Amino acid sequence: MKAIVKAYFFDPVQRERVYCILLQLFLLLYIPLLSKLANIVLGGLIVFWLTEPNLWRKITRAFRNRLFLSVVLLYIIHVISLLYSTDLFEGIKRLETRLGLFAFPLIMGTIVLTPRTVQTILKTFIWGCALVGAVGLINSIFLFTQTGESVYLYSDNLLILTSGQAIYFALYLNVAILFIIFLCVTADLRQPERRALLFLVLPFFTVMIFLLAGRISLAILALLVVIVLIILIVKRKMYRLGFGMIAVGVVVGMLMASYFPKTINRFKALTNLEFDYSAPAEVYHFNDEAYQNKWNGLTIRLALWSCTWELIKQRPLWGTGIGDFMSELRQKYKEKDFKLGVARSFNPHNQYLQVWLALGVFGLLSLFIFLIYPAVHAGRQRNYLYLFFLLIVSVNMLTEDVFAVYRGVVFFSLLNSLLLFHP
User: For the packed helices 35-49 and 12-30, what is the interaxial angle rounded to 10 degrees?
Assistant: First the structure.
């Protein structure tokens, strides 16, 4: 018994295996939003990390590392803002939600994982997304055959079983596609698993993103497709495969647009940029053609950003504090007679504005450090996987508060720390 304990708690190879298994299990539970089970595994990961040899020395070394400080500074500013928040209870709740911004860098920055282990974890993320996507699509097809309602094939309806949100799952899929590209570029494409990822999983993810119908996610998907084609045609000199994929992509795109027109309808609504705060709380998604007099994703965000900016101008230096920004935002909605905002209690739907509103200009500066300093470091290390990961998430932050919800903050903080500290 002592020999087993010694092997798993003090042998570096065995410790790495345990970390890998725990992280794999956590991802497989986290992706379908089995939060309670995922948190149990996360608790096990933390307990095991606490047995790390020379842990205090490693933590001390981490806090002397500028790269580590650049990614935990944002959370530290969140904690400081609690000191001038009126609603302490709300502030503590929001700090708890964002705890991953501190915990995951601390764990990942003090353990050792080999590139092979990191690739295993990335593949687990890919296959976890594939499993959740496949189950969701099968369920949606079943509901469609039972009801004849094609709306079940789109957006959040694809995630009914997991109570997921289309915007976040599309973000997962775009990152998973990035991981597939990385794994295929760094390995022999003749390997069966790599070929399965490239020719089966990647097209499936592409179709799923199209059906999830998020405009930002579709734009990012287009960027990833361009990257794949550049790699195949320019770097790998695989002209037949590259141009063949272009031809197939054009045909498949035309067929998807023809048979699944509701995704295209999402873009039609972008022609309507005017909004009236006092308009009825009716939202157009894609299931009808009457979008001129309804709120859509863009007009909602324009209204939210306008309200947020008015509050920022009142306290640009320090912000409202982490505990008060939502209560002040709701009050602003009432002042504007923004019926939909009051009814839905929307957050700002822009990570940069949300941080500025809650934490002031110092918080915004810490967010820029959080994104730019690691990017510069990764560029010097030629860690292109991390750079593209950061680009994808940073673009999504333009229209979402990624750190506001469990499905966003844990996803980003875990993968960000994994890719940054273990390139």
Answer: 160
